[in-house]
Amino acid sequence: MSIPAELRFTPEHEWVSVEGTLASVGITEYAAAQLGDVVYVSLPPPGTAVTAGEPCGEVESVKSVSDLYSPVDGEVAEVNAELEDDPSLVNAEPYAAGWMFRVRVAQDGNGNAALPPDLLSAAQYEELTKSAGAS
Amino acid sequence: MTSFAGWQMPLRYGSETAEHQAVRHAAGLFDLSHMGEILVRGPGAGEALDYALTGLLSTLRPGRARYTMICAPDGGVLDDLVVYRQGEEDFLVIANASNTAVVLAELVSRSAGFDAVVLDATDDYALIAIQGPAAAGILAGLTSLDLEAMKYYAGAFGEVAGRPAWVARTGYTGEDGFEVFCRPSDAVWVWEALVAAGAPAGLVPAGLAARDTLRLEAGMPLYGNELGPDMTPFEAGLGRVVKFDKPGDFVGRSALAERASAGPRRELVGLTLQSRRVARHGYPVMADGQEVGAVTSGAPSPTVGRPIAMAYLAAGTDPSDAVLTVGIRGEAVPVELTDLPFYSRSR
After folding, report:
1. ipTM of the complex
2. Which among A39, A91, A135 has the least Cβ separation from residue B300?
3. Cα distance from B28 to chain A (closest Cα, Å)?
4. Of A38, B195, B309, B318, which sits with the fewest C-beta atoms within 10 Å of its C-beta?
5. Cross-chain Cβ contact A62/B17 below 8 Å
6. B220-232: per-residue pLDDT in tens?
7. How many domains would you assign to chain A?
8. Which of B20, B222, B296 is nearest to A36 (CA)?
């Protein structure tokens, strides 16, 4: 199970990749494997204000439906339109072509993205999946 | 892996959609060892089952199988069953894992007045199902049984990969296929032999998730979804399993006769969604905005290409000239009434 070291993670099994003040969001390979084949992803339209830890969409798989949470505060800048036609990208490439949405994050006093302090490192997230009984 | 009726079961081995398609177009291999096996034996075994179940089993010929049900005295379904007649005085009853204890207890008490013994053999059998159009060809290479001569819903004792087994042409996928009942100590051997023999033909191991979408497309009921103690076989569209014309009394007869003449309180229907969202168990069904029923099973259908569902609608609902919708987490999603089954194989 791969956990890219350069990403940040949430306990809801989502990943965040930050470039400047733009945060890309998806679900982890672990989450995709647990859900099984993803058949539908409901995403917040661009312009939607999102709040860290609040539901903002849905991920539907063959066997279940799960809330999608925003890991950051901000405004949705872009969604992955490819997932409309091919939601299986989430299973095939959860950290690349299976990305879900991008959020324009507010800046802190130094002009950096103001991220929630409780995002996990790759090592912390790996620890979390291990304690959840990941195989 | 998932917990299911006290067993650790594979929900999927890889992609459940790929597993589903393999069963439709090549073959899939299922580990169904959780299913309950109950032996009913003795000179009065057939009569005991005629009394205990809704079907007529005493006239079943050795080597043949029948789909039947066990009902409570009030007509409610306690389980749906496949019964094999393995010999003149030997019947093998297959129960759902979660109902095995209930079925066993009922068969023991209901056969008390008959010359028959009832034995729980669940721990004596592993069950491996090989299902799909390529199943017969794959299995034929590992057994001396004449599979071509074996009819649907028939079975025979033989060997698979050199190990003793009861092999039956039954299944729960809507495809041709076989179920292999072998000793648990032989299960890994038989499984690996089937995987090795079948891989070149496209056979893959398949999990519970694919099993559920396959049986849903085939319009087959699942106990706990379409069947339960608060439903009769008639409501599930399976009144044919109740043999009122068989000799003697059977448990549930008078209640079932009453229900048959009164007509069903609800009707099982098929639905196809005009959406990517899936209507799942328990979601409400509306006709012109009025709630008229609920979804019992729903899943994306790889064969149809859209989500499908089965649902119970209240009797008297005339869905033909109403706008039917399913409430999916607050959104009314249009659905089309679809004849069951959604899929039937070409023969």
Report:
1. 0.86
2. A39
3. 18
4. B318
5. yes
6. 999 999 999 999 9
7. 1
8. B20
Structural domains for chain B: 2-215 (3.30.1360.120), 265-347 (2.40.30.110)
pLDDT at A133: 61
Question: Domain containing A17 — which CATH number?
Answer: 2.40.50.100
Q: What amino acid is encoded at B58 in this protein?
A: S
Over the stretch A53-69, which tens digit does the pLDDT of each residue have? 999 999 999 999 999 99
Q: Which residues of A touch B (CB under 8 A)?
A: 36-37, 39-40, 42, 58, 60, 62-63, 65, 87-88, 91, 135
A18 domain-assigned: yes
Asked if A36's CB is within 8 angstroms of B278's CB, the reply is no
Structural domain harbouring A84: 13-105
pLDDT tens, position by position, B147-185: 999 999 999 999 999 999 999 999 999 999 999 999 999
